[in-house]
Amino acid sequence: MVDISVHEQLLFLEKQLLAHNVRKSKDHLDKILADDFVEFGSSGIVFTKKDIIDRLSTEEEIDYVLTNFHTKILEENVVLTTFEIEKNAGVKYTLRSSIWRKTDGKWQIVFHQGTPK
């Protein structure tokens, strides 16, 4: 069973990463994304932290709905999150997974993958 506080913390952070104001903020993204962050996008493209920060700063506003959120502790201070995303009121669904690492008391995302549903 996952500690509910870890579950709630990571749900909050995942929702933040979907919020338009956070996605536009290079400073906020720099704090949430680990320096060694990698994403396997639903498009099949691999992105680094720099790629994501540059790309999201110019992204048009998109409404996301996060559902079916789960957490699984992989080891102390490393957690896998899985969930589904609905983009623009049902236009596109994706399955998502992230790996979060807690360093110096702060959660950062180190890996993310989106898979079309």
From TrEMBL:
Positions of the DUF4440 domain: 13-109
Residues that span the membrane, as ranges: none
Protein name: DUF4440 domain-containing protein
Listed InterPro entries: DUF4440, NTF2-like_dom_sf
Natural source organism: Lottiidibacillus patelloidae
Signal sequence region: none
